[in-house]
Amino acid sequence: MPLFTVLIVVVAWYALAFGVSHARGVQFPTPGTTLVTLVELLAGRPLADHSLYAHVRDSLVRWSLAFVIAALFGIVYGLVAGGSRTVEQLTVPIVHVLQLIPGLAWIPVALLLFGIGRRATLFMIAVTAFAPVAINVLAGVKCVDVTYIRAARMLGARRRTVLLRVLLPGALPQILTGLRIGLGNGWRVLLAAEMVVGTGTGLGYSIIQARWTLDYAAAFACLVLICLIGLFVERFLFARLERRTIERWGLSRQS
Known about the structure:
By secondary structure, the protein is mainly alpha-helical. The chain has two domains: about 1-45, no CATH class; about 55-250, MetI-like (MetI-like fold, Orthogonal Bundle). It is built from eleven helices and no strands. It has helices at about 5-25, 30-40, 50-85, 85-100, 105-115, 120-145, 145-155, 160-170, 170-195, 205-210, 215-250. α3 (about 50-85) runs parallel beside α6 (about 120-145), α7 (about 145-155) runs antiparallel to α8 and α9 packs antiparallel against α11 (about 215-250). It is elongated. The two termini are about 30 Å apart.
């Protein structure tokens, strides 16, 4: 993120804090107050009966596990539906309906299926991240040049070989796009789910608990940390993986 962009955010934040404090007479955490609180939390100050590191660890574990489940199911579905017109026609409407359902709308379903706890959170993340992955994988498979498929079949390639050696590499740019979208969707739903389904730990749980104790500076510190984690995963990990993968396979989004 450019330094000038950060400066704009900080100045706007200070202006908002001053305006809210002056208009409503309540203490709105400033960037300085938030930074001090974040340093205190990183130094070991407990938050909702746990350290900040425990909350971050638990959130990342839930996010990673549910995203892996969603990615596996999404990729498998996209490859199978892309290779079978019957499966595509029967199931694509269902996937599109799942895409339209907001992540928080799954709360009552998750509670009825799994009750309060970790499994409900994992379910909400996985079902929200699945649809964009599945749709993009299917779109990528449909965009693969049919000439390559016919050539592979003429050379005696079986259905499984066509899926793994032709369709999967050819759909790779769209697959990576779907994974990035699903990753972001899962991160947002994770935090909301932790606020509602009572996981006991996590950044989302920390924010809701900080609200009840009126520790808004700690809530803002968690928000800053959430943004930093999201930017790190998106810009420094996933974007680099996407670029190197596309370069390795000699692919481009236009092709």
